[in-house]
Write a structure and sequence with these properties.
Length: 315
């Protein structure tokens, strides 16, 4: 039995990866399967916190809100982020509790609506990189750029998506509550990277239009709770070099130096694999004796046992 602490980050796209359209029901099915794996990790003795992405989900909430503007005023971006935390957290709470109960593990599961302080002067505000919402063809993307003023970018060979600013997470506002809950429950926190807020000179917080990368948020959380492992779960089992090329090579492990070299070579696109690798690198740079793992939702247990996934270590 392990007694280690682990921060598990679930990819927003990965949570929408079921067959058919991205509905609440299709997400619930993926969450249900994923929570079986998280419950298995809990049964191995690990103490867990869950962070989730929200790119596809917050994008759709924003679209729905804009489309309904004739009926009721559109919600600001930060409120859409809070909504995404609420419904994804609700799905995880429901499914994880069920999966834990099945193995007689009576552990409370709770979602904390989490605000994340960002720097108003973060250069990310003038260089949008975070893909949100659905995927479009190049032609559809051009129309959206012209008609709605969206900025559209190609996303890892999967199509075009709207991109928005993604400032770096600086401080988790609710961290003390998360620490207090940690000992008695599985906490779902920093969803969608946290609701981005800036701190005004008078100490008030103010939501801003952005989507924080949940991989960086999960890394910050892992530092703050002194986690032993940062595990980032997405759609692919392993990180690759030469991704989607004939000479693609899937990596079982990367040292910090190797990862830095691959980043330099441009092996990982911004907004998808790059933040995962950078978050993993930051974690092992800060804690040279700890490890980060990147793998798929369904391989989490095997990856923890070192049987698959990409393990990132200091050396
Ligand atoms: N070098 C790479 N190795 C593995 N996957 C990559 C690589 N480059 C891009 N990708 C893509 O990045 C995706 C993960 O990013 P993304 O879908 O944004 O993550 P999330 O599941 O967190 O939403 C993978 O599923 C894969 O399609
Ligand atoms: N907020 C965030 O990082 O979402 P994704 O996991 O969907 O990219």
């Amino acid at each position: 039995m392990s007694t280690e602490k682990i921060v598990v980050a679930l990819g927003g796209n990965a949570l929408q990866s079921g067959n058919g359209p991205a509905t609440a029901q299709s997400q619930l099915e993926v969450v249900r399967k994923t929570c079986e794996h998280i419950a298995a990790i809990s049964a191995m003795g690990y103490e867990i916190a869950v962070v989730h992405g929200n790119g596809p989900q917050v994008g759709r909430i924003v679209m729905a809100s804009e489309a309904a503007d004739q009926v009721t005023p559109a919600m600001p971006f930060d409120v859409c982020g809070a909504m995404s935390q609420g419904y994804i957290g609700y799905h995880i709470q429901q499914c994880l509790k069920y999966a834990l109960n099945k193995s007689n593990r009576n552990i409370p599961v709770v979602t904390v609506a989490t605000q994340m302080i960002v720097d108003a002067k973060d250069p990310a505000f003038s260089n949008p990189t975070k893909p949100i919402g659905p995927f479009y063809t190049q032609e559809e993307a051009k129309v959206l750029e012209q008609e709605r003023g969206y900025i559209m970018k190609e996303d890892s060979g999967r199509g075009y998506r709207r991109v928005v600013a993604s400032p770096l997470p600086q401080r988790i506002v609710e961290i003390e509550a998360v620490k207090q809950l940690w000992d008695h429950s599985i906490v779902i926190t920093c969803g969608g990277g946290g609701i981005p807020v800036i701190e005004n000179p008078d100490g008030t917080l103010e939501g801003v239009a952005a989507v924080i990368d949940k991989d960086f948020a999960a890394e910050l959380l892992a530092e703050k709770v002194d986690a032993d492992i940062l595990m980032i779960l997405t759609e692919v089992e392993k990180v690759s070099i030469n991704f989607k090329k004939p000479n693609q090579q899937d990596l079982s492990r990367m040292t910090l130096a190797e990862a830095a070299r691959y980043v330099q070579e441009g092996q990982f696109p911004a907004g998808s694999m790059l933040p995962k690798v950078e978050a993993a690198m930051k974690f092992v740079r800060t804690y040279p004796n700890k490890r980060a793992i990147i793998t798929s939702l369904d391989k989490a247990v095997e990856a923890l046992d070192g049987k698959t996934g990409t393990s990132i270590t200091f050396n």
